[in-house]
Amino acid sequence: MSFWKKVVDFFTGGPTSIETSAVGTSGSPLEAAIWSAIKSRMAKGESFTPIDVVDDATSSTPGRTVKTITDGIAFVDAFFARGLFAPHGYTRTLTSTPSGQNWLYHPASSAPLVAMPAIVAQPALKASAPAIDPYDVGSLLTLTPAELRTRALKIVPWRTAWIGRTDVIPPESDERTALIDRGLELRGLLTRAQLVEIHRVGDEWLKHKDAPRLAQSRAAKNAEEAVAQLRAERARTKEEKRAASEARKKARAERIARRKREDIVYLGRGVSALLGDRRAHVEKLNALGLPVMASPADVATALGVTIPALRFLCFHAEAARRAHYVQFDVPKRSGGVRRLSAPMPRLAAAQQWVLEHVLEKLPVERPAHGFVPGRSTVTNAREHVGRDIVINLDLESFFPSITFPRVRGLFVGVGYSPAVATILALLCTESARTRAEYDGAKYDVATGPRALPQGACTSPAISNQIARKLDQRLRGLAVARGWTYTRYADDLTFSAPEGKRSEIARLIARIRHVVEEEGFRIQVKKGRVQRAGGRQTVTGIVVNETHKLGVPREDVRMLRAILHNAKKTGLAAQNRDAKPDFEAWLRGKIAYVQMIDRARGDALLRALDAL
């Protein structure tokens, strides 16, 4: 039964559990437990207070409430009032403690364990009135029990805001609460001091009970403000980051654009690895009399072009929309075709500069006669005139075997930085390409590695530089065995006087070994061993006669036949191969004969002029 139900029963005249239990008829488990705890204490001769007994009786009871404690104390008082303590020799004494006055139950023969409060001197009291019956409320409150009930019933429930409220303690100013307080004090359930304390706690509760909700509301509001502030901060940070990112992108784009205008750091896949190395060997370049260049900008300045133009000329693309060479095939004298690559004008001009200012200043080995100023096929053949044995060997795929890495290594070797060497090597090499079409667009697709193109003015000079070590080794090999060695482009010629025929096989084997070590290969099908008994030719010139060069007999006969027939039919009728400028071609052939055999050449020229 709730506390407020007891209050209602009091004012409506109904019984309470306390009144019933006081006479021992409630049958409550709590009453039995209280009495059992009392007997246990008395059997031990211990002193105890009502709250000690309640603690013993309810120590194992979960969910102990204030009502349980209050009812337990009432049971103890009721048992004493019924005289149940006297048979056990127990009585009680009112004691004072810091928490207030309380009954102490103890054996009648022993003094209380708690000292009585000291007697304080007080002024004399007036003569007291006769003893008042505690149940006579009329003399205390000027209200009889019937009047209390009558007044309580007259209170209109909806006139007060405190009826039915279980979350607060009504204030003393409430009419109904004041009436209840009187009844509680009258009945002895609570003292005035206790009621005052209860209402003080209630007032404090009324003052602060909404604090959590307000705090929660403020916290929610603050949280919303914090979230809004956080979102605003995030938005501001995001905007700052976006602006910073845009600034970085813009700065990067500007750096890239400036670098494209002023520098070259990438020229295609597989060829750009060394473009960042700008270290040049200045002393070596000066010693060779070469222009000092360390960076792409230096090369562009030397060539008289811009950085973007130089990048365009050097860039390596596996599939190019615009090719730098015009490729075409011409028939070989020995059969088959030879692929020639003619550079476009701007690239040809750049290659011409490299040839004049770099390649032609590099020394060439003595055995090399091809593409060297002051040397020719005639000087090459003259070294082998009147010899007993002449061996002609041919290097297979001479220009295609000199690839981009070897050319770049050549320029690095003479002192240029890897970056400049890369650019010069790209200017002087090209991949074999085939025309392909994809998605409506035409491309020149690379079918092999970059190498010396046959048609670039730089290719012969570069090949002589790449073959320098080969020439040195083969010349040393020949001199050590009493032979003579020369090279005209990819034609190797060895000759010896009498008595060396037994060394031919061993010499050729050794030559092949050296050639392969230097990165080349001998074309086996084109090798020839010419002895003195038959015609011996070197680069198309007959060298059998001692101290004299000769033109092959079939070439002289062909020229004589053309000139003889031209007297009858005219020169144009002899152009059976439809050559573009037949007369110029004919004069060129006669000039070649003059270079080898002056007398025969002059006779042919006079016959041509007479037509």
From TrEMBL:
Annotated segments matching region Disordered: 233-252
GO biological process entries: defense response to virus
PROSITE patterns membership: RT_POL
Enzyme Commission code(s) on record: 2.7.7.49
Catalytic activity: DNA(n) + a 2'-deoxyribonucleoside 5'-triphosphate = DNA(n+1) + diphosphate
Pfam families: RVT_1
CDD domains: RT_Bac_retron_II (cd03487)
Enzyme class, first EC level, given as a word: transferase
Domain Reverse transcriptase: 311-543
Keywords linked to the UniProt accession: Antiviral defense, Magnesium, Metal-binding, Nucleotidyltransferase, RNA-directed DNA polymerase, Transferase
Family label: Belongs to the bacterial reverse transcriptase family.
Protein name: RNA-directed DNA polymerase
Organism in which the protein naturally occurs: Sandaracinus amylolyticus
